[in-house]
């Protein structure tokens, strides 16, 4: 099982040390309800080799070896990494292996980075962080400490596998909880929520939870699906959206800005809009499931398979007063 005690030690001397009042018990309860494959995934991490590597987090998530793995070592290494499929957010370049994930998450990162307050020396929370690709890019920008939260056991194991290959870097940590389980810490300099809002049954509650984690003057980076329209336009899919059954509210940008104002954010600005393309999200050898091409109407790529507007995303940056 993954040992989170080193993270507790980091918390003890951090601005979020009061999280220790609730976190250990929550994680103990989480361990009692884990996925049936969790133990197997943890063993795969143990099987992975670990060598001193040259680390690049500035423009990739990369660990290079001075001496390449032998053919036999490479085959075993690939086998272990593929036991942790599907790999959704990336890419990763590890010991000579290119993990070509479903999402080119570097595209999103490059779009939003110019609009962020400098991350150097910041305490950062990444909500719904997946396997942690963006967390490592935050570390690459000089963040002092990055905490990601995501309750999915496979993502935790993928994150810990990558951490091991990045010389066991402890500047980033993934905690298997949802934000609704976090006590209000009011301490993070920056909070990211990317690809989460439309999965929330109560989007205003989610925005309030994000605000409750920020310090005064802290910055929210919110990335989500949007539709075209005015301040009153919100899409509520009847059953599924792009084959996803857990999509509840997709607002227009103006509606989203209005929501953010209602929960108390200020200096709200939309810094990017982009249509999701098959270059950014696609099926690869690291993903056995369907991907974007399967979610769109084959006769009209401007629509989902259900007839809704095809995925379009926006990045909103705002501040806690």
From TrEMBL:
What reactions does this protein catalyze?
A: carboxy-S-adenosyl-L-methionine + 5-hydroxyuridine(34) in tRNA = 5-carboxymethoxyuridine(34) in tRNA + S-adenosyl-L-homocysteine + H(+)
An example GO biological process term is:
tRNA wobble uridine modification
Note the CDD domains from the entry: AdoMet_MTases
Which Pfam family, any one of them, does this sequence belong to?
A: Methyltransf_9
UniProt cross-references to InterPro entries, sorted A to Z: CmoB (IPR010017), Mo5U34_MeTrfas-like (IPR027555), SAM-dependent_MTases_sf (IPR029063)
Keywords, A to Z? Methyltransferase, Transferase, tRNA processing
Give the top-rank taxon of the lineage listed in the UniProt record for this protein: Bacteria
Task: Cite the EC number.
Answer: 2.5.1.-
Annotated binding of carboxy-S-adenosyl-L-methionine, by residue? 89, 103, 108, 128, 150-152, 179-180, 194, 198, 313
What molecular function terms (GO) are annotated for this protein? methyltransferase activity; transferase activity, transferring alkyl or aryl (other than methyl) groups
How the protein assembles, per its UniProt entry? Homotetramer.
Q: Cross-referenced NCBIfam families, in alphabetical order?
A: PRK15068.1, tRNA 5-methoxyuridine(34)/uridine 5-oxyacetic acid(34) synthase CmoB
Q: Which family does it belong to?
A: Belongs to the class I-like SAM-binding methyltransferase superfamily. CmoB family.
Which PANTHER family does UniProt cross-reference here? METHYLTRANSFERASE, TRNA U34 CARBOXYMETHYLTRANSFERASE
HAMAP family (alphabetical): tRNA_carboxymethyltr_CmoB
Q: What does this protein do?
A: Catalyzes carboxymethyl transfer from carboxy-S-adenosyl-L-methionine (Cx-SAM) to 5-hydroxyuridine (ho5U) to form 5-carboxymethoxyuridine (cmo5U) at position 34 in tRNAs.
The name on file for this protein is tRNA U34 carboxymethyltransferase
What is the species of this protein?
Nicoletella semolina
């Amino acid at each position: 099982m993954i040992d989170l005690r080193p993270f507790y030690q980091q918390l003890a001397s951090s601005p979020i040390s009061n999280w220790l009042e609730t976190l250990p018990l929550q994680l103990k309860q989480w361990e009692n309800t884990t996925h049936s494959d969790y133990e197997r995934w943890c063993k795969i991490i143990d099987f992975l080799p670990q060598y001193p590597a040259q680390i690049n987090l500035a423009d990739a998530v990369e660990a290079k070896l001075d001496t390449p793995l032998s053919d036999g070592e490479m085959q075993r290494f690939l086998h272990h990494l593929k036991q942790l499929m599907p790999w959704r957010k990336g890419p990763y370049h590890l010991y000579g292996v290119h993990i070509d994930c479903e999402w080119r998450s570097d595209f999103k990162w490059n779009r939003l980075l110019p609009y962020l307050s400098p991350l150097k020396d910041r305490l950062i929370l990444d909500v719904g962080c997946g396997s942690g690709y963006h967390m490592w890019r935050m570390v690459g920008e000089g963040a002092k400490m990055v905490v990601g939260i995501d309750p999915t056991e496979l993502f935790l194991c993928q994150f810990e596998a990558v951490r091991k290959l990045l010389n066991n870097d402890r500047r980033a940590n993934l905690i298997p909880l949802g934000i609704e389980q976090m006590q209000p810490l009011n301490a993070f300099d920056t909070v990211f929520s990317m690809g989460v809002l439309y999965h929330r049954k109560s989007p205003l509650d989610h925005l309030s939870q994000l605000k409750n984690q920020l310090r005064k003057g802290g910055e929210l980076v919110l990335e989500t699906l949007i539709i075209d329209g005015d301040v009153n336009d919100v899409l509520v899919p009847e059953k599924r959206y792009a084959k996803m059954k857990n999509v509840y509210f997709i607002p227009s940008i103006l509606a989203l800005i209005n929501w953010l104002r209602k929960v108390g954010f200020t200096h709200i600005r939309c810094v990017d809009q982009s249509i999701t393309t098959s270059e950014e999200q696609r099926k690869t050898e690291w993903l056995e499931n369907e991907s974007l091409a399967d979610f769109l109407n084959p006769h009209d790529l401007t629509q989902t398979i259900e007839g809704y507007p095809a995925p379009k995303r926006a990045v909103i940056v705002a501040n806690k007063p």
